[in-house]
Amino acid sequence: MAAKAQTTALFLCLLIYISTTSDHKPRSCQPCKELVFYFRDILYNGYNYQNASYAVVGSPKWGNKTAWAQPFAFGDLVVFDDPITLDNNLHSPPIGRVQRMYVYAQ
């Protein structure tokens, strides 16, 4: 009889222990839904051609290839090669490049 009481007490203790432990789910790998990058347009102002990240490769007859055509840059074909950084600091090391092309038609 004493063995039956001990077995019952042990069973009840295990049942209470199992029911009170917190339910920890294993951490599953979730895909990242948000990436934040910063890319820089370093525009040419007549003095910083070595640092400029764009170039005018096509322009109308009245324009030139060192500055945007006036007014409104109409007819310019501009290509960009901008550095990508992980933070908002201009002097951060680049982690990649953004290459794009604009055609100004308005």
SSE blueprint and pairings:
Layout: H1 2-20, E1 38-39, E2 54-58, E3 77-85, E4 96-103
Pfam families: Dirigent
Protein name: Dirigent protein
Subunit structure: Homodimer.
Can you give a write-up of this model?
Keywords: Apoplast, Secreted, Signal. Homodimer. It is found in: Secreted, Extracellular space, Apoplast. With 106 residues, the protein is of the alpha+beta class. It has a domain at 54-106. The chain has one helix spanning 2-20; strands at residues 38-39, 54-58, 77-85, 96-103. Strands 1, 2, 3 and 4 form a four-stranded antiparallel sheet that branches.
Helix content: 10-25%
Amino- and carboxy-terminal Cα gap: 97 Å
Radius of gyration: 33 Å
The overall pLDDT, averaged over residues, is 79
Largest sheet geometry: 4 strands, antiparallel
Let me know the number of strands: 4
Task: Summarize this structure as a short list of keywords or feature phrases.
106 residues, alpha+beta, 1 helix, 23% strand, rod-shaped, signal, apoplast, Dirigent, secreted
Offer a quick outline of the entry.
InterPro entries: Dirigent. This protein has 106 residues and is α+β, with helices and mostly antiparallel strands. It has 1 helix and 4 strands, in the order αββββ.
